Structures are given as C-alpha cells and as structure tokens.
Protein 1
Amino acid sequence: MTQAPNETLPLAGIRVVDFSQVMMGPCCTQMLGDYGADVIKIEKQGTGDLSRWSLGEDPDGFNNPVFSSLNRNKRSVALDLKAEEDRALVLRLIEGADVVVNNFRPGVMERMGFGWEDLHRLNPAIIYAVGTGFGLEGPYRHKGGQDVLAQAMSGAILRRADPSLPLSTYPIAIADYAAGMHMVQGILLALLQRDKTGEGQRIAVSLFNSMLAMQMQEAAVRMMRGAELNWAAMPLSGVFETTDGAVVMVGAFKLNPLQDICRALEIEDLSARSEYADLDRQKERRGELQGIFRERFAADSTAHFVERLEGVDILCAPVRSLEEALADPQTAVNRMIVELAPSAGGPVRLVGSPIDMSAAPFAVRQAPPRLGEHEAEVRAEAGRGEDAA
C-alpha cells in the first residue's frame, strides 16, 4: 500500500536518515514518517534491523509483526558500512538531509565516522538525534540500554500497589516508547529553532531520563517532602475481581468518595465510622478497606459494578484484554487500526497514529519496507546530487 506524498503534511520536505533499530528510534522515525518526512532506513546487509529476526522465524520472513508495527512510511536500504561505496552513499544522503537518528551506544557512530562533529562539519544544518540507555556521559554511558533495565534503575519496578506483591517488570516497553516520543519532541523543537538560526544541533534522549521524567510527581514529593507518593496504593482505588472478570476503580476527585463507593456496592457507609473518617485513616487501614471491597466485588458481574459505580460518578472501567480493546467500537471510531494489503504471512493490521490532526490526516503511504526494498531508487536520488529530493 503506497500513497503519493502529501506536500501539505507538516513534515513534507524533511529528510531523515535513520540508523536506529528495535523500538526507541524506530517509533520516533515512524511518527516523523507518518506526518510527511521522507525517512530513509539504513539497515545492515543480510540481516537488517534486529527486530526483523530477533523473535525467531515468521511466515512473512523479515517483515514480522513487531518490525512492521514500527516501520511504516519508511524506505529501506541495506548497506555494508565498511564498504567505501556504501559509506559514500550515506554521506551523500546526510549532506542533503535534515535529521539523522541513531540509538547505538555512545561511540559507535563516532567509530564509523558518523558522529555529531563529523556530520555537523559535513552539513551544519543537520539535526543529530541520539538515543541511549543512560546518557552520553557519566558512569553508565557504555552500559547496554534496554527497557526493563531503565525500569529497574529508575525506581519504577519497586513502585507497586502492595509491597507484599512480587517484583515484576512492566509488560510493555514503556521506557522505549517514552524515549522515542521525547526524541520526536526534541527533533521538532530543533527544526523550529533551525528556522530561526539556520543551524542544526545535537539532541539526546535516554531510556533512564524518560523513566525519571515519567515519575516527576513522585520524585518531587520525595525530594521536597521526603515522603512517598504512590497512586497505585491509594486506599479507595484498585483492581477487583468479579464473577466474570475484573473492575478497576478510582475513588478520588470527590469530597467523600468512600460514601459513594459504599452506596454503589450496597454496603454500610464506612465513611461514617471513625476509623475510616478521613484519607489519612483510610490509608492506615487500606488492607481492611480493600478486603471489604474485594469480597463485595466477587459477588456479582463486571457489568453490574460498572453500572453501579458510574451511577454515583465513581471513576471505573472493566479490565479488558488487548484483543477486546482492539475490537472495541471506540477503537474503530478513533481510527486506531489500519489495514494494509495482505502479505505472505496473512493480514497486515497495525495500530495507527494516536495524534488526530484535522488538517493533516494520518495515512500509510508506504507499507513496512522489505529489507533493501528502496536501495535502487535511493541510490539514484543520491546520484543526482543537488537535484535529489
């Protein structure tokens, strides 16, 4: 599925040379491509992006669902960066590009001759975006960066609703996605500044910094008051199993949420008892309250309790599987699923863009590329020198 570029898209005319792989960098460059940038994905000959094969064999070969989910609206070239001809091609591309993206460990791009200083001399207007695990400097600069490592070292894994629960990593790549979106923001800010100064710059993001930034409220309370803030451990909130599933409830943003919760659960008004009369005492007796809630929720269905809680304006929702969420009518209304032409592995269905712009509608103009699919056309464009577009 390929559509002609829309020259009115906000990033039309911006060329991105993308060395990144796996998730942090690719989710960034995919968003740039979704809104008009020409993203040229530089891949290793023979194997390509690690996510093409690191999860094992797939019916669609190197275009497995994980790779496809992160690499639409890009063009792929497969190169040997030890070969002078291929290195020269990359330098020609960068000479006419706006943005270069990589998420290698510090020093890797420099050893290849593609570091910030090298490329800034070649193209003073270039915006050089680099993502790392822990930062470009400091004691962990050379430590391998990975999502769950950042979760662990940032303090996020220790943040549980109940300290008696076993430690566990978050089951989605929250650090990768957050850092990728921070990289998008940095690139857009640098493009705006370049419009004023004519100069490019280096921007850097890391998984570690993004995980700290996601805990900004908790960190401020810790540093300024020496106290612990844990939204998951609030006494009137939690996940409660029902006869046919589970309900998540948030007892907050009201003068006396406990009174309304009790009314919805059809139990006595616990807020009238002195031991539960205010938030501090409710925190002290969180275990007792949660036990009462669990026993009541276990007596009826998810739909029953959602209706009851919503009837008293207590925030709640059914706990869904991903399959159920994808099939939800709200997902369809929000146009969050895009379907491309079937591949060798069957249907190609991807999550769309979470950004809805009235004057810049999201579209898949280029399906996730085969390894090296666009090499001939990119070489031809680079060979035209200043005429390349």
Protein 2
Amino acid sequence: MSKTKAGGSAKNVRDSPGQRLGVKAYAGETVNTGAVLVRQIGRTKLAGPGTKLGRDFTIFATKDGKVSHRQTRIRRFDGKTVPRTEVSVI
C-alpha cells in the first residue's frame, strides 16, 4: 500500500530564462572593437557607421570610439516610413 497519495501531473510549469536584451552601451560611452552595443530581437535599432549587425541582430562595434544614437526614419516594404534609432561608433 502506498504511503502518499497520487500527486497528479503538472503540465504548464516550464519557463525559459530571460534573454538579457537591451542597450548595453549608451550614448557617450567609450567602447573597444567587438563590444556589444545592443542585443535585440529583430531590427528595432539600426547599425550605423563603425558598427555591424550580427546574425541574431546584435549590434557590435567594429572600431574603438564613442557610442552615439540618433533618430532616423526608414521605409518599410509596404511603403510606410517608421522611426528607428541608429547606433554608431565615432
């Protein structure tokens, strides 16, 4: 005879850890080559001069310098223009 009752099964108890997204280096900060500036899902921010866009949309520095952010507008495939932040290293 069992000493404990049946516990049942919990179906919806799994959770994934946070992905640590966001801006890692703000405007005016000094960075080295290869430093991660922004971790993002999709192209919410654009890579400007002195930066490159990684395969997972991470923006990283390609040279030493200071980080700068500026607002710009890009045209989407459907013809709309939407505001985006361009991250660059000067």
Protein 3
Amino acid sequence: MKIPSDEIPQADVIEDVIKTVICIAKGGETFQDIAKAIGKVERQGRYYRKAAEIVGFVATPTRNHSVLTPLGKQLVKSNPTLTNPLFLQGVLSARIFQRIIPFLELYKTDGVTREEIVDFIISVADISGDSTAPRRFSSVVSWLDTLRIIEKKNESYFLSTTLINKKIPLLQFTEIDEPILPRSSNLNEYKTVEMRTAKAHDTIISYRDLAATERADNAHRKLVNLVATRVKATGAIPRYNQLIDLATRHQDDDYIFEMKSLTETNVKSQVRNGLSQLFEYRYLQNLPDAKLILVVETPLPSKTKWMVDYMEEDRDVLLVWDGDDQLYGTNETREKLAFLNLQP
C-alpha cells in the first residue's frame, strides 16, 4: 500500500502553508491568489494549495476554487501559526507523516540520517515517473525539522516525543487500514493490515459506529485521558484510530486498551464486548504479541468478580478500573503495567 505521490507535499516553506490558509480565509480562491499572497510564481501557488489540502485545512471542490475545511476555519479562528496544536494535528494526520512517526520510533535509540528518512519515503511512496520526487522528500524533512518533530544530534535525527505529547492529547491515525504500531518499515506489514481490514469491512463499520457513540460519553473520555496521561509520563506516545481507544509502545512492548463505561445492568455485556473487540483489534492490526487491557470506570460488582480471573488467568487480558480519578489493578496487573502506576 504505497502512498500516492500527490499526497506528499511539494512546498518547502511550511510557514507559507499557513499564509495559504490565511489567504483563502480572506477571500482568495485561486492558485493565482495564493501565489500572490506568498510572493511566489503561479506554479508555486498550486504546490502550496495542494500542501494545505494534504494537511486538511483547505479543499478545492471545483476547478481552481478553494475553500477552508472545518479544521481550517478552526485554525484561523484560534491562532494560525506553526505553534498552534491544531496545525500540528493537521500535519500529523497526513498519511506520509503517519508513516514517518512510527518509522522514527523504531530507531529512537540510534536515530536516523536524512538519507535514511528519504530512503524510507521512497520505499512507501508511489513515485514512479515523478521527476519532482526529490523536492517532495526535501519538503517533508524540512517540515519535520521546522516543526521540531525531529531533533538533530550530530548527523542523526530523533523523534521529539516530548513536543508531540505536549501539543496533542492523542495521536490520531485517520485510516483504519493503517498500522497503528508497525513493527518494521516493511510494506508487507502495511499490506497485511490493509488486507485484514478489507475482509472485515462490515464488522469494522459496526465497531466504528459503536466507538463513535462511546467516545461521546464523558466517562469514556475520562478513562482515555487518565490512561493517556500515564502513558505520556513515560515518554511514549498514546495513539488511537476510529476503532482502537488507545494504543502505545512502551519499552518495545505493544499495548492495546479498550475503555468501557459500566452500569449495574450491563457489566457482563460490556466486559464481553470489550474482550471480543480487543482480540479482533489485535488481529486486524497484525500485532500478535500486543498486551490487551480492558479499562472500566468502576470495580466489577461482587456478582461478577469471577470475570476478573476469567480475563486475567484464562484470556490473558489485564483489567484496570477507575476509582476517584485513580487507576487500580490486581497484583498481577500492577506488576505487568508498572509504568501506569496503578493503585492496589
């Protein structure tokens, strides 16, 4: 599953992408308007309009007539600068950057050179016959550097997890068929996830709708935020997609979390739904060794306490519960999830 060449920005100066958004907000519609606003030739006006489209702030529904997307309108209303978290959110939602972030994570100890980043882009992008490819690669690395998503030490670049965690509550992976925690930079891994999600299309639709409903619930959001805060404190990046509530990689181990709110009457059904979702998500994401964690908003009632042993002893799924804005777990769970600082 290679990324189409036209999804890779060909705009070197990322500040001018902001100017492009502002130009359209002020009534500019055409690439000629954009070129004039950023002080470049008309051809560059096309490049910068396309870059603003790639990161989700601009749409061009009809020929040479551009408008702001809802995200673009939010950016303009808040603070249209490079330091605005909305801008970073938009950039990191582009598929090319969603590939690069996990790639950089794989080499967080030794870092990667500029050439290795370019080689990776070549491996994941469909650039056959594209004479402008080298310029696109230069733009991508320049954006990473300007936004300080990467830090240079000697001749190697390292992912700045601190900046990402400071600016973004959770890193969103926008496509369900994109690996959320790839274990390699090999395209075969991406193809496997794409194939599995395609075959499970009908099930995924129902899970996606369920996830959207649950995420509107305050208790659900609270659980996500509690876990995400603990994950960030370790320097790992919490992430999610349309199905998975939260996932992360900590010290080379993968974790998938499913959050469930509970009432007195739905405990069994919620636990059972959570278990099935966790196993299916792990399969769809091709992460057979990922540790599965079910997070619920209250301790299980006494009548269903047997389910704790069932989950942890029989299914090897860890249970975490909230209590007064704290996270709790059994002795075994606290040991296996020491990085979350669970209470007894």
